[in-house]
Amino acid sequence: MIDQVSSSLRFDDLGAVPPEQLVTHMNDPRVAAHLPLLTHPWTIQDAQAFQAAKRQRWIKDGLGHWAIYSGERYVGWGGFEKDGETWDFGLVLTPEAFGLGRSVFLKALEFARHDERIEVISFLLAPSRRSLSALTRYGAVYAGEDDHAGQRFLRYELSLAPRKSPGQ
What we know:
With about 170 residues, the protein is of the alpha+beta class. It has a single domain (about 1-160), classed as Aminopeptidase, CATH 3.40.630. Helix content is about 35%, strand content about 30%. It is built from 6 helices and 7 strands. The chain has helices spanning about 1-10, 20-25, 30, 45-60, 100-115, 135; strands at about 10-15, 65-70, 75-85, 85-95, 120-125, 140-150, 150-160. α2 crosses α4. The chain is globular and about 40 Å long. About 20% of the residues are buried.
């Protein structure tokens, strides 16, 4: 089953998602519960500004956030954005797709392992997140807390660089 889900997942242009669909997605209280920076209900203008900002990250860094689809169904957005020397991975799924998080993460991790720009992935998680064991199973380590726009986040980092054995 997981292989079928993984093979049906695809990353595409976030700018092609209708802004109305992003508004519905981001205004769902089940999504907002884990997004401390989401401080007000989204409007069409917010969605368009978000898409424009994400497009600028692609232009600046050559990488950014994608729209995520399972088959032809939009299931969320996420991807990599440059944050200092690391690439931050973000993922915001629709409530109907919450169970796809692991599959989406593994597909993104596969992408990252083949992109020589990405040596370290950071994850900024809301303290409301209950289960973080999935990240640690894949080798991510707790790296402290970060403050963004007055909100506290838990920071985890995953190194993709080959580890040297002692004596090398």
